[in-house]
Each structure stands twice: as structure tokens, then as C-alpha cells.
Specification:
Elements lengths: L1 E7 L4 H14 L7 E7 L11 E2 H9 L10 H9 L11 E2 L3 H12 L3 H14 L7 H10 L4 H9 L4 H13 L7 E4 L3 E4 L4 H16 L1
Helix pairs in contact: 1-9, 4-5, 6-7
């Protein structure tokens, strides 16, 4: 069994692009005998728990030249190649992603973690939803058959809080300095939103070594 740990943040566009490429790779025979485990990373861990108003933040940072709806050209082009249209113009909040990472842990327990990653990416990048908002997360979880009260109790309490913090520290220990990062057996780290071809080559090589 090849376990691929995916260090990611739900507000990282390259992580969304990387997930779509990973899905392509695992659709074929290479996906047999592979287990995915999403792990947390925070690009902006110091954002307040309630998040920030995105417009106010960008105006403070860039002044009146700030283009709230502009998607960086390189990201837009790579996203388009994966069939994605990123709607930065719909985003109103810059969320703290701790709650979303805790929800990812809950979704692992319910067997829908990979689907939850897709749901969070789509909610933020395609619908402009606040993925740091409790009730938004409750609704996303309900769409994946996790009862609303289960999610609400889990996130209102300390569910997975220690696990997420432990994994955030572990990310540093295994050499993750940006995301996405794909951590493979024997300590191999594949950084960045690699092409589907590169992913396939690396995964195939690692699987072969595991079987030797």
C-alpha cells in the first residue's frame, strides 16, 4: 500500500490545481493500492480566528490600485488547464483555516476526506464562500452526509485540535516549506503542483521500490 500524505491549505490555489492533477493520475491503474491522507498547513496562521475583510486587507496592502477580482496570470492559466475558473471576485473574507483543517480530520473519520478537500476548494475558489465560518463548514459537511450536529459539536469543542497542531509542527519537521507537498514513504517529499506526468513517474517509482 502506498500512502500519500498531502500537506495543503484550503486557501492555496496551487493545492486545488494539484488535487485535480492528482485525481487524473489516480484514475488509472496507478491509483490501485494507494491511500490518501490530507494533512494541514497554514499559509497565514496569524489571521484572527474570525478572519479578515478581504477588500479592506487588500486596500491596506496595495492601496487603490488593488484589483480585488484579479487572479494572478500564472495561476489562472494553470487552473484553466485543469478546467477550473477561480472566482477571486466573489471572495469577501480572508479566513483563518484552522476550523477547516479540523473539519478535514472529522471527514477522515467519516471516510470522505478526499471529497471534503474538493468541497472546500470549490467553496472558496469557485463560490467565494468563507471557509473559516462554522455554519458554512457545517453545510459542506452535511452535503457529504456528516450530520450537522456532529460537525457543530466537533468544531465548537476541541475535536482534532491537538492532531491538527501536531501535524502543523510535523510539516516543518518533514521539510514542508510551501504547499502542496506530497510526502511519500521513506521520507521522500514531492513539492509543489507538479504536472500529472511528473506525479505519475514519481509515484510509480516509489511503488516499485516498496515492492522490491
Amino acid at each position: 500500500m502506498l500512502e500519500i500524505e498531502i500537506f495543503s491549505d484550503v486557501v492555496c490555489p496551487w493545492c486545488f490545481i494539484g488535487k485535480r492533477r492528482l485525481d487524473q493520475v489516480l484514475q488509472g491503474e496507478l491509483g490501485q493500492g494507494v491511500r490518501l491522507r490530507w494533512r494541514p498547513y497554514q499559509l497565514q496562521p496569524n489571521i484572527a480566528p474570525e478572519g479578515l475583510d478581504r477588500k479592506a486587507y487588500l486596500l491596506r496592502r496595495y492601496g487603490h490600485d488593488a484589483d480585488l477580482g484579479r487572479v494572478p496570470a500564472a495561476i489562472a492559466a494553470e487552473a484553466k488547464g485543469e478546467g477550473l475558473t477561480l472566482r477571486y471576485d466573489l471572495m469577501q473574507r480572508m479566513p483563518n483555516t484552522l476550523l477547516a483543517h479540523r473539519l478535514m480530520e472529522l471527514s477522515f473519520d467519516h471516510g470522505v476526506q478526499h471529497d471534503m478537500a474538493e468541497a472546500l476548494f470549490q467553496a472558496y475558489f469557485c463560490a467565494g464562500k468563507d471557509v473559516g465560518d462554522l455554519e458554512t463548514l457545517v453545510l459542506l459537511a452535511a452535503d457529504l452526509k456528516i450530520p450537522a450536529q456532529t460537525t457543530r459539536d466537533f468544531l465548537n469543542g476541541d475535536g482534532a485540535l491537538k492532531e491538527v497542531h501536531d501535524q502543523l509542527e510535523r510539516a516543518v519537521d518533514v521539510g514542508v516549506t510551501g504547499v502542496p507537498g506530497y510526502y511519500l514513504p521513506n521520507g521522500y517529499l514531492l513539492p509543489g503542483a507538479q504536472s500529472a506526468e511528473t506525479m505519475a513517474q514519481i509515484f510509480r517509482r516509489v511503488k516499485q521500490k516498496l515492492n522490491e
